[in-house]
Design goal:
With 299 residues, the protein is an alpha/beta fold. It is built from 15 helices and 12 strands. The chain binds 1,3-dihydroxyacetonephosphate and iron/sulfur cluster (SF4).
Length: 299
């Protein structure tokens, strides 16, 4: 009798599938994935894969982005209800209204948005390329949706007039300066790395700010043995695996429940039945793929 992991491996081969998992996924899901990474890295892989099926372990906006970038592939999302709350904080209608109010502005949208919101954007970005994307657009005025913290950070690093939205990630917003100060008291020599979805006052005391992939790079290159990591706790597994001699300190309550929904059983079920296909209507897809492709070209 084969184990769940072995059955996934057999089906993956049989169906010519590739499994992509975000850095916040459960350890056992990361272990069966062909690629583990941040939103940008996984989008790039999805756009270039020759697999017939992409199984996206993460949240729905990530699987939708994979489908938009690889429309000819079948994209499966093992947990169809794994929706990032930040992506629900910005609708297509709200973006249309904002464009009416700021007619000369360009809309730069975080990838953590729905396909219909993307259809109203000029260009997408992720936490790893937001500064580069915003700096690359010709317009002086930028409507930046939906993350107010990432938008504020980008604004501080560019000369653009960034018009902010009021969206946020509840997980990163829950990390306070006091949490970091308390950690620092325990590990005074530790370096602090923070995700740009964290509040500005947390970012201000960080030694490094970056996407989850940047965190993996920083962990490898830093000579600090102790690193305080201001992001979702799922990141700890990969950091420990790649850097067994270092210690990583997380804020325990920073847990994203939607990122933990995908399990080995749900991956197996999706692959076995080729179920939970990402379907985006043609009208939305044609428009939503444009800002995403612009971002990939800028990479
Ligand atoms: P990254 O692109 O940095 O992996 O971030 C994705 C995300 O959802 C952070 O909360
Ligand atoms: Fe969304 Fe935050 Fe979870 Fe990332 S960590 S998927 S932004 S809720």
């Amino acid at each position: 009798m084969l184990s769940v992991t072995e059955r996934i491996a057999v089906l993956k081969k049989e169906k010519k599938a590739v499994i992509l998992a975000h850095n916040y996924c459960l350890p056992e899901v990361q272990d069966i994935a062909d690629h583990v990474g941040d939103s940008l890295g996984l989008s790039v892989i999805a756009s270039r894969t020759d697999a017939d099926i992409i199984v996206f372990c993460g949240v729905t906006f990530m699987a939708e982005s994979a489908k938009l970038l690889s429309p000819d592939r079948t994209v499966l999302i093992p947990e169809i209800n794994a929706t990032c709350p930040m992506a629900s904080m910005c609708s297509a209608e709200q973006i249309k209204d904002a464009k009416e109010c700021h007619k000369d502005a360009c809309v730069v949208g975080y990838i953590n948005t729905t396909a219909s919101a993307k259809a109203e954007m000029d260009v997408c970005c992720t936490s790893s390329n937001a500064i580069k994307v915003v700096s690359s657009v010709k317009n002086d005025d930028i409507i930046f949706v939906p993350d107010v913290n990432l938008g504020t950070y980008v604004s501080s690093k560019t000369s653009k007039n960034v018009i902010l939205w009021n969206g946020y990630c509840p997980v990163h917003r829950s990390i306070t300066v006091q949490n970091i100060i308390d950690m620092k008291a325990k590990y005074p020599y530790a370096k602090v790395i923070a995700h740009p979805e964290c509040c500005t006052d947390v970012l201000n005391i960080a030694d490094e700010i970056g996407s989850t992939e940047r965190m993996a790079e920083f962990a490898k290159s830093s000579d600090s043995k102790d690193i305080i990591v201001a992001t979702e706790v799922g990141m700890k597994y990969r950091l420990m695996k790649e850097n067994p001699s270092k210690r990583f300190h997380f804020i325990d309550h920073a847990l994203c429940s939607v990122m933990k929904m995908t399990t080995l059983s749900s991956v197996l079920r999706a692959l076995e039945n080729v179920e939970n296909k990402v379907i985006i209507d043609k009208f939305t897809a044609e428009r939503a793929m444009i800002p995403l492709k612009r971002m990939i070209e800028l990479k």
